[in-house]
Amino acid sequence: MSVWQSYRLRLQRKRWRIRAFRKRRELKRIADRTSEIRQDDILVFCTQRNERVRLPYFLDYYRRMGVAHFFFVDNDSDDGSLDYLADQPDVSVWSTSAGYKRARFGVDWLNWLQMKYAHGHWTLTVDPDEFLVYPFCDTRPLRALTDWLDASSIKSFSAMLLDMYPKGRLDEQPYQPGQDPIEIASWFDSGNYTMEPNYLFRNLWIQGGPRARVFFADQPEKAPALNKVPLVKWDRRYCYVSSTHMLLPRGLNQVYDEWGGEKASGVLLHAKFLDTFSAKAEEELARGQHYAGSVEYKAYAERLKDDPQLWCKWSERYINWRQLEILGLMSKGNWA
Question: Do 24 and 112 meet the contact criterion of CB atoms below 8 Å apart?
Fold first, then answer.
């Protein structure tokens, strides 16, 4: 990279941080329990809108993993989720009716909260339908992973977004609050993925899975990105650039071995495709607050007319993290 490109990235990072500072005015504090956060606590950051049905299991999943405190930005929910979050003893929540798109799809709001509250903490930035799976997660808490990352002087940990789906119609099995969504959406694509290096930001751009296969079959290059860096030892100088797909400084994105070896990585089980999906897709398409003119939700709306089934004869049923490692979707690297 040239000196000029490096300088431009530093300016870009400064601009995103200033933008996040200005966007703080859009956030209204509803419940602030940040005084209870301890120096070594692991934190979760999340934006949400009308996800009341998902929140009980989401909170329970990450509490059991060892997360100590949750930060939520509620974007104008009307389903009771804001009140539910405000009542949780380990949650701090802000609300806003400002445009999701104008906040760079929520990134500005979370960058501000992370800048203010996350310095020195391991932070996990996820959506309410994303569930982190990491090596040994069935026997070791998240703290064991972050301790190993600290000991190895590693500041970020990647996780590929793995779209999960049911066998049969999406609306065949109703999802209940508090239920593990993977009980319903227990299948995934194991092999139809493409990777392309982004030399400017040093990350790998991953696409594929059922969304590319079903919703973007004619234009797979427009399928949503699946590469994520959700777990970061935060510093107030950092910022996310595009959702959790990449950060600045760009060294945080280099979570793969350029010479063909393996670095430790995880998977985010993406439980998007439940019986709630159709109504959610219609709502978000009508709002028009998503990336690239909501092209993703337009594709959903077009295919949902045909009541598609995502399951196919090549689908794999999820078992555990070791299965995902065998399939090459994640790795324990040299963590033993």
Answer: yes
DSSP string of 320-332, one letter each residue: -HHHHHHTTS-B-
292: CB partners within 8 A, 6+ apart: none
Q: How far apart are CA 77 and CA 79, in angstroms?
A: 6
Tokens of 168: 């049969």
Identify the segments of the chain with pLDDT beneath 70.
1, 258-260, 288-294
The structure tokens listed for 114 are 């992370």
Alpha carbons 241 and 111: distance in angstroms, whole number: 9
**Nearest by Cα to 165 from 37, 25, 318, 22:** 318
Structural domain total, the chain: 1
Q: Identify which of 227, 277, 224 has the alpha carbon closest to the alpha carbon of residue 253.
A: 227
Q: How many Cβ atoms from other residues are within 10 Å of residue 222's Cβ? A: 14
The CATH number assigned to the domain holding 86 equals: 3.90.550
Closest CA to 159 of 202, 128, 130: 130
Positive or negative, the Cα torsion across 71, 162, 134, 181?
A: positive
72: left (phi over 0), alpha (psi -120 to 50) or beta: beta
Q: Is residue 336 part of a domain?
A: no
Q: What pLDDT sits at residue 306?
A: 80
Identify the burial level of 245 via C-beta atoms within 10 angstroms of its C-beta, where 0-12 means exposed, 13-18 middle and 19 or more buried. Answer: buried
Residues in the chain: 336
User: Could you list the residue range(s) of the whole structural domain that residue 38 is in?
Assistant: 3-326
How far is it, in rounded angstroms, from Cα 150 to Cα 169?
A: 44
- Residue 132 domain-assigned? yes
Q: For residue range 250-298, list pLDDT tens digits in order.
A: 999 998 876 667 899 999 999 999 999 988 888 777 776 655 556 787 8
pLDDT score recorded for residue 295:
77
Q: Say what the pLDDT of residue 294 is.
A: 63
